[in-house]
Write a structure and sequence with these properties.
Strand content: under 5%
Largest sheet: none
Order of helices and strands: HHHH
Number of domains: 1
Radius of gyration: 17 Å
Number of strands: 0
Structural class: mainly alpha
Helix content: 55-70%
Number of helices: 4
Shape: elongated
Length: about 90
């Protein structure tokens, strides 16, 4: 396991935090201090995070376009990632 993975501090849960974390990975790739398999795993996780944000933005846009009869809590619904066991 690379030093970047072992010593990584938690990434801020924002676009900026994710971007900074990915730049840290990119620096590790360039220096050769991270295994390509780890980079592949990080890339897959990052892609899933981006997809989940895309879905949430689409839901919010649809909720804003919903008729006024939609309950307020439904209009501002957000989705959270849940881990699946199995």
């Amino acid at each position: 396991m690379s030093d970047i993975i072992k010593s990584a501090t938690p990434v801020e849960r924002s676009f900026e935090g994710m971007r900074n974390g990915l730049f840290d990975v990119w620096d590790a790739v360039r220096s050769g201090s991270i295994d390509p398999k780890q980079v592949d795993g990080i890339a897959k996780i990052s892609a899933q995070l981006c997809k989940s944000v895309d879905v949430e933005l689409k839901v919010r846009k649809l909720a804003q376009q919903a008729p006024s009869s939609v309950h307020e809590e439904e209009k501002h619904a957000t989705f959270k990632l849940v881990s699946r066991k199995g």
